Amino acid sequence: MPVPAPHARVEIELGERSYSILIGSGLLQEPQALDALPRAASALIVTNSTVGPLYTAQLREALAGRHAQVHVLELPDGEVYKDWATLNLIFDALLSHGCDRKTVLYALGGGVVGDMTGFAAASYMRGVPFVQVPTTLLAQVDSSVGGKTAINHPLGKNMIGAFYQPQRVLCDLATLKTLPPRELSAGLAEVIKYGPIHDMDFLAWIEANLQALLAREPAALAHAVRRSCEIKALVVGQDEREAGLRAILNFGHTFGHAIESGLGYGEWLHGEAVGCGMVLAAELSQRLGGVDAAFVQRLTKLIEAAGLPVRGPALGAERYLALMRVDKKSEAGEIRFVVLDKPGSAVVRSAPDAMVRDVLAACCEPL
Ligand code: NAD
Ligand code: GLY
User: Fold this and answer.
1) Alpha carbon of 353 to ligand 1 centroid (Å)
2) Domains assigned to the chain
3) Averaged over 66-73, what is the pLDDT?
């Protein structure tokens, strides 16, 4: 499949589940971006009440001629709706439209729409093809890539889901023009993440180009999305189902998920919780001897400059610890953290509760 110029392509190499990530401004207006994708009789665009009015028409136009029937489902908008009841709306739509095993689902929106649509695609009639059309920076650099799909449970974030790869990821950078500034910052958290865990040159590039990214300069966004996807592709290509290495992509997420579920989903954005979680994880890394204080300060400064919180909310250490024990990386009740063993390299390991309490006391608001 040729890449429509002047766009970029990153390949996810997973044998028969391999697929391309196309990155470029205006992809939604280029039907050739869909070349070689399944041409079923029916398709369902799953979006939400914010993104739908902005971009469904463009996607519909690109799909014209590919599917005899294109149905659209607009979900309510928000992390709080990433649940069973909302997931069921997708199954309701698929069944009521008589969709079959070949029906193609298109996830048009941010990570919430992408994760839920992917889970619906994984389970409807035991699996139908789906295409990710991410419209947030966070979804373009992380959630649309790699096949993790899920909904939340009141007791834990992303606890119910499946690994299920899309057929393609279409990152149309033009959609980022309408993204609220707070959401842009949330996406930058996941961009920054790739530096400390894998690529210190990329971290330095983000530092040097932060203002261009915040100003949404197309060249800066294109590089950030491309490099983030390249790193994610490298990791997922080696460890699709998170037997080991893939866990490094969760740097900051153990603390972050505790913040999200502890405050109630949607109170802090996922990217905000991850941004703050990376500060806590870096502090823990320092106590474990992987990085020095100067590195923690450097990372904290960048996260703050990206418009993200760097102090944890006042949940209390015991609640943080209880929430983190529910994390998917926990084994036999022992919390396992992604920490830096040196700048640019991450590992998964446990830490004494006393040390974690110390980090929480230093980096979170008091109760
Ligand atoms: P989101 O999906 O809630 O989108 C953020 C907000 O931006 C929403 O209000 C949405 O309607 C709006 N929006 C989306 N695109 C827009 C656009 N172009 N213009 C204007 N508004 C737009 O949040 P998110 O940050 O994209 O994703 C967070 C979710 O992703 C979390 O549930 C998180 O758990 C999940 N996630 C999953 C993975 C994975 O590997 N599957 C990785 C990271 C995060
Ligand atoms: N966002 C973490 C992962 O995809 O593994």
Assistant:
1) 32
2) 8-178 (3.40.50.1970), 181-363 (1.20.1090.10)
3) 97
